[in-house]
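Format notes (please read before filing issues)

Several people have asked whether sequences and structure tokens are stored in separate files. They are not. Every record keeps both together, in the order shown below: the sequence lines, then the token lines. Line labels are part of the format and must not be stripped during preprocessing.
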Amino acid sequence: MFRVAICDDEQTSLVLNKGLTEKILTDNKTEFAIETFTSMNELLNVMEERRNEKGFDLLLCDILTNEMNGIDAARQIRLLGDQLDIIFISSTAEYALDGYAVQALRYLKKPIDIEKLREAVLLSVKHHENTGCIHIMVDLRDVTLQYSDIFYVESATRDVNISTGDNMLTTHEKISDMEKLLPEDQFYRCHRAYVVNLAKVKSIERYEITLVNGEKILVSQQMFLETRNKIKEYRDKQKLKSEE
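Then the structure lines:
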């Protein structure tokens, strides 16, 4: 699911940008969800509330809004550790260099050119397609890990430990950011300190998961029923795939 946030304090522009984005993603046969916001403060509050959940993949926003300009908002978004792509839309090129300073994907001028918007949106879609692997830094080395090699991710203060069954890799990331890099149909946050690969689960009981290699990890009391349902849902999908 490709998640898009669109922010503009002008209702006409908000509706137009939402409609264009819907058309682009529908034409591309991309499964998507779009949320709209009329202020950057509202958007930032929502992102803060959901920082332990799957976040947005793409933000389209006007640089000039009444409460907070898009550049300042983007700086705050980057402080949250979010890796979403940002497309700025503005009637002026005055802030273009500032836009790239906060790693904006594109800076588009009004009136918006749908083909330029299409190119930018589909570039973001490509960025967020599941590639079957993640790249992490371990002791200043770039390490590529296949999803299928990961058993679980464990929070370790300011780092995370990634178990590959017979090895443990440590990288300087927050578990909430690591969670966003992993496909939600295969990985699940079963505890504030653990994200588990559902494909590696052997069994679950209160309040513990046993993995196929015999390791055990915790499941929080609040997440037990949901975790059990996620495991069942994953197994049912795998069974259907094998029967096709």
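For reference, the curators noted about this record: The chain has two domains: 2-128, 133-243. Residues 2-128 form a domain with the Rossmann fold fold (CATH 3.40.50.2300).
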